[in-house]
Amino acid sequence: MIDFKNLAKKYNTPLYIYDFDGIEKNYTQLKEAFKARKSLICYAVKANSNLSVLKHLANLGSGADCVSIGEVKRAMKAGIPKYKIIFSGVGKRDEEIEEAILRDILMINIESEAEYHRIELIAAKLDKVARISIRVNPNIDAHTHPYISTGLNENKFGIDISKAKKLYILAKDSKYLEPVGIHFHIGSQLTDLKPIAEASEIVASMLKSLKVLGVDIRFFDVGGGIGIKYQDEKTIKLYDYAQSIFGALKGLDVSVICEPGRYIIGNNGYFLTTVLYEKSNNFKRFIVVDAGMNDLIRPALYKTYHKIEAVCSNNVNVSKCDVVGPVCESSDFFAKNIDLPILSHGDLLLIKSAGAYGFTMSSNYNSRGRACEVAIKDDMDMMIRKRESFEDMIRLEKEFL
Ligand code: LLP
What we know:
nine-stranded mixed beta sheet; TIM Barrel; binds ligand LLP; 30% helix
């Protein structure tokens, strides 16, 4: 049991808390589900990029899925070997491509025809061979929130099958590109297996036709997206997930790559905040807390649900309320119309399932310093990022007067 009250006393709030034992358990369970094949888990750094989190995963054997050279550098700094690092993203800058080639990572995931040519040009200039994969858009509806659905023709991600095939054939004869992988990612917070199985079938059948043409692809990258329970979602069983992918790969000698972010850390992260005030009008009861949308933007951005519990409360005198922050926006809320007991100044609220896309999406909006981050491992707590001070916030600014 995590002693949240004690952590608040020691580190103050707002505070992110990550359960490192839970992270290990989730990583191991997923790896176990894939054991019938060669597999590599490339943790999606964007979910939570704290160096200690990455180091913990590196020690477990994880690779990294990165979307910027900053994330690649973080992964390498944390000790993730270069041959387990993938660099994706629709808009990579020349300098980022150049550095990824020089760092000799596992592969660069190409997201457009124009980018294909750009990478080839940069590799030629460096006189290096860039290992690549192509992100294929299988045009599959993942049945998730539209903002995190990515595998449809209307989305900006990936390349359609026929164009991707042509690029693979071109790459086969390129002096500077070596096609080693094929990639898709149809969306995030997936709770339905069917679209994953369908996408795997589509992409595996393309892979088979490429093998016939002599394109030797060794990595079948299914992206991330395994959904978690925020409320009462029915989640995918890991065994079924792995089997639905393996089903499409019969007879193919490829390693499976999976890029989970949320699954690894989502429910292993807690966000702790302190109640400042209760206020009511004729319509509503509001609980004003010391954390804001700048700390955890998911409810404001996607209207997502995070379970909120009062720490150390016997839950009497419960009534409906909105939990809101101090930021000057009406969208600065963590929950609407939830049941909470009467609270007083200084009481703690625990916001659950906050490990993924919590801190990484935080900002300094309203000149609020980012929260402190703490790791719990073997019942010990350790600060893994200091609370941002005012000086930290203004450090890069220059006075021009
Ligand atoms: N691989 C690729 C290529 C991705 O684009 C993503 C997530 C992942 C892996 C990891 O997906 P996961 O396993 O975490 O679902 N900010 C949103 C989520 C954005 C996801 C973007 N891509 C949220 O808070 O729900």
